[in-house]
Amino acid sequence: EVQLVESGGGLVQPGGSLRLSCAASGFSFNTYSMNWARQAPGKGLEWVSSISASGSYMYYGDSVKGRFTISRDNAQNSLYLQMNSLRVEDTAVYYCAREGDGGSPLDYWGQGTLVTVSS
Amino acid sequence: QSALTQEASVSGTVGQKVTLSCTGNSNNIGSYAVGWYQQISHGAPKTVMFGNSLPSGIPDRFSGSKSGTTASLTISGLQPEDEADYYCSTWDHSLSARVFGGGTRLTVL
User: Fold this and answer.
1) Nearest CB to B44; choose among A35, A59, A111
2) What is the mean pLDDT of residues A8-32?
3) What's residue B59's pLDDT?
4) Rounded to an integer, what distance in angstroms lies between the CA atom of residue B97 and that of residue B3?
5) Which residues of B fall within a CB distance of 8 Å from A60?
6) Is A29 helix (H, G, I), strand (E, B) or coil?
7) Mean pLDDT over residues A33-45, rounded?
8) For the residues of B71-84, what is the DSSP string, one character each?
9) Chain A residues closer than 8 Å to B4 by CB
10) Of B32, B96, B100, which is closest to A45 when you measure between CB atoms?
11) Closest Cα partner for B11 from B104, B87, B78, B109?
């Protein structure tokens, strides 16, 4: 059974940093691209970033480019999101999601972890 | 505004057939498979359609299709538990980004 479990969320002040983790199990992690998406309170889903299976290619949404860094450790079956220079508008539930084969849609999602940016 | 356009709200009665649409362009829907995601009360999204495939465990009253730059999710035989927000998403090669629609709130009357 595919499982994705996020952790690392919490309360942080504006300008601060946070690192999210996603522990994957139930599939060959090193053969799938992975994504982060988020949902601000009362808003829709927003894609944040993706990373290729090997970790060689990373893509970012415009709202986080230059501030967030996606990475992965295939030996540990783990996905990460380093978030720097956090803003109030980054407050959201962050979801880890698996991407289907060959650039296919996202197929499995985690339960999410809440990040609150507030002074 | 979102790269993909969805109806803000759709409603139907129990047993009715409803269709949700998702409109994009040749850089996204016109080139890539579309995923549909159900979100109940802002819980974790659940994939209800993956391209034209129904994920394991999703009732076969859900079906998906695509014509040109518009994708559709059809629910035949609407059930009370289908009341949720539905989002469509795909890759956009001109943006080098994954894009989401703004979401459709489906109400079962």
Assistant:
1) A111
2) 97
3) 96
4) 10
5) 97
6) helix
7) 97
8) EEEEESS--GGG-E
9) none
10) B100
11) B109
